[in-house]
Design goal:
- The N terminus and C terminus are likely disordered.
- The two termini are about 20 Å apart.
- Strands 2-3-5-4-6 form a five-stranded mixed sheet, sandwiched between helices. A four-stranded mixed sheet has the order 1-13-8-9, covered by helices on one side.
- Helices cover about 50% and strands about 15% of the residues.
- Among the domains are: about 100 residues, TolA/TonB C-terminal domain (2-Layer Sandwich), CATH 3.30.2420.10; about 170 residues, no CATH class.
- It is of the alpha+beta class.
C-alpha cells in the first residue's frame, strides 16, 4: 500500500477515534464562537455597557457549553437519512507478510487519557478550593457591628435584594469576598472594623452587586467549563473577560450610588495595598482586591467609562443570537466532508493463510467478501459472506477467517460512530506477487468507488 503522509495520518487517527474527532470538532467550533464574540466586543466596545459586555462573554461561554449537547442530540438521528453510497473495493495479497496498519489506535487512546488526566486535576483543584472556602466560612465570625449591618441594609434596599445576606469577619482573608446562591455570604477581613463608613458602604455595594447579578454561580460555571475544555486557550481568555466585566459592572454600581469616582479609586488602591499579605484566597470566591485587574479597574473608574445598564433589547437579541449560533455550529461537521469521503481502510489487517492444498497444487485465485463494520470498527462475524470466488470454495474459509479479525476506522457522522454495512474486500491469492495466473480464470473485481 502507498505510504501515507503526515497530514493523512492525522486525518486517519481522527477518523478512527470518534471521541477524538468529536473533541477536535468541538475545539474548532468553540474557537469560532469565542472569536466571533471578540470581534463583536471589539467593534462595539464604545457602545456596550459593562453589564452588556459581561452578558456577551457569558453568552459565548453558554454557546460553547451547549455545543456538545446539541452535537450529541443531532448525532442521535438515524444514519439512514444519510447517503451510504457504494463501498470501496481494496485488494490484499495473501502472500504478503505482517499486519497491515493505517492508523494507530494507541495514539488516540493516549491522547484521551492525557486529556482526561489534566481535566481531572483541574476539577480536583476546584474541589480543594471549595473545601478551603467552606473552611473559611465555617471559621468566620458573624458581624454584630451596627454600622456594618446598617450599610448592609441600605445597600440591599438600593440594589433591591430580597434574599437574606450574611456578613462575617475572617482573619484568614485579606480581601472582601462574596459567594453563595441561595444563602449568599459576604466575608470581610478582620481589619474591616477600622474602615471608614463610606468605605464600608462602597464595599457593601460592590459585593452585594455580585450577589444581585449572580456572579458567583456564573464564575463557578466558567471554572468548570474551562476545566473540562482546558485545551482551548480562547476559552480561558473568555473566562477572564467574564471576571473583568463583572468587576467593572460592580464598580459601576458603586458609582451609581453617587459615590465620587476619585475617592472610590483611592479607597480601592489604599485597601489593596493594605491587603498585600501572603494569604491564599480560595479560587471559588470573588475577591474585591484582585491584583490581576485592579489597575484596569482604577483606570476605568477615573475615566468614567463604567456607567451604563443592559437594555432589554440587547438581552433579547443576545438570546436569539445564541440559538442561531448553537444551531448553526452543531449542524456542521467540520471534518465531515473529508472523513466521509475516505476509503474504508483497515487499522489491523492480518493477511489470510494460503491454503496448503492450493499451494501444493499451484492454485491461484481470489475471493470477494462482503461484511458489516460496526461502530467500534470491528467486523460483525455473522455478516461475513462470500459474494464471488474463483475458483469456487478453494479460498472461502481462509478469507472469512481473515476478514473476521479485521479492524477498521470507525465512520463518523455528526460526531458519532455508525455501522457500515456492505463493505466489500477482494482477497487475491498468488503464489508469487504478480505471478502468472491461468488466463482462463475470471479476473477479480477491480471496482473502486467512494463511500
Amino acid at each position: 500500500m502507498e505510504k501515507i503522509v503526515l497530514l493523512d495520518s492525522l486525518i486517519a487517527v481522527l477518523g478512527s477515534q470518534s471521541s477524538l474527532h468529536f473533541g477536535v470538532d468541538l475545539l474548532l467550533k468553540s474557537s469560532i464562537v469565542i472569536g466571533l464574540t471578540y470581534v463583536v466586543a471589539t467593534i462595539f466596545r464604545h457602545r456596550l455597557s459593562n453589564s452588556s459586555s459581561h452578558l456577551l462573554w457569558i453568552n459565548s461561554m453558554l454557546c460553547v457549553a451547549f455545543l456538545p449537547l446539541a452535537m450529541l442530540v443531532l448525532s442521535l438521528f438515524p444514519a439512514v437519512f444519510l447517503d451510504s453510497g457504494p463501498i470501496t473495493v481494496i485488494s490484499i495479497q495473501a502472500s504478503s507478510t505482517g499486519a497491515v496498519g493505517l492508523a494507530d489506535r494507541g495514539w488516540g487512546s493516549l491522547l484521551g487519557i492525557g486529556y482526561t488526566l489534566v481535566a481531572s486535576l483541574l476539577l480536583l483543584r476546584l474541589l480543594f478550593s471549595g473545601v478551603a472556602l467552606n473552611r473559611i466560612n465555617a471559621q468566620a465570625v458573624f458581624c454584630t457591628e451596627k454600622s456594618i449591618l446598617l450599610a448592609l441594609r441600605r445597600s440591599c434596599e438600593f440594589l433591591e435584594i430580597s434574599r437574606t445576606v450574611q456578613v462575617k469577619f475572617s482573619e484568614d482573608i485579606a480581601s472582601p469576598m462574596s459567594f453563595g446562591l441561595f444563602k449568599p455570604v459576604v466575608i470581610l477581613p478582620a481589619v474591616a472594623n477600622d474602615w471608614a463608613e463610606t468605605t464600608l458602604a462602597d464595599v457593601m455595594v460592590h459585593e452585594l452587586s455580585h450577589i444581585k447579578r449572580l456572579d458567583w454561580p456564573t464564575m463557578l460555571f466558567c471554572h468548570v467549563l474551562t476545566s473540562l475544555l482546558w485545551i482551548n486557550p480562547l476559552l480561558w481568555f473568555a473566562s477572564s473577560r467574564v471576571d473583568e466585566d463583572a468587576e467593572k459592572a460592580c464598580d459601576a454600581a458603586v458609582l451609581r450610588c453617587g459615590q465620587d469616582g476619585v475617592r472610590y479609586a483611592e479607597d480601592l488602591l489604599r485597601l489593596a495595598r493594605e491587603s498585600l499579605e501572603n494569604k491564599q484566597a480560595p479560587l471559588l470566591a470573588q475577591l474585591m482586591f484582585d491584583e490581576s485587574n485592579l489597575t484596569m479597574r482604577i483606570r476605568n473608574i477615573l475615566s468614567g467609562k463604567l456607567i451604563g445598564k443592559t437594555s432589554k433589547v440587547f438581552v433579547v437579541g443576545l438570546t436569539f443570537s445564541t440559538f442561531l449560533v448553537v444551531s448553526a455550529c452543531s449542524g456542521v461537521n467540520l471534518f465531515g466532508s473529508s472523513l466521509q469521503d475516505q476509503d474504508i481502510l483497515p487499522t489491523v489487517a492480518e493477511p489470510p493463510q494460503y491454503p496448503t492444498r492450493a499451494a501444493n497444487e499451484g492454485i491461484e485465485g481470489w475471493t470477494l467478501l462482503s461484511f458489516t463494520v460496526t461502530a467500534d470498527g470491528l467486523v460483525e462475524e455473522n455478516s461475513v459472506e462470500v459474494l464471488d470466488a474463483e475458483p469456487v470454495e478453494i479460498f472461502d474459509r481462509a478469507s472469512i477467517r481473515a476478514a473476521q479479525k479485521f479492524e477498521f476506522q470507525p465512520r463518523i457522522r455528526n460526531g458519532r460512530a455508525v455501522d457500515i454495512p456492505g463493505v466489500k474486500y477482494v482477497f487475491k491469492y498468488e503464489l508469487e506477487p504478480g505471478g502468472n495466473r491461468d488466463t482462463e480464470q475470471r479476473p477479480p473485481p477491480s471496482v473502486r468507488s467512494r463511500q
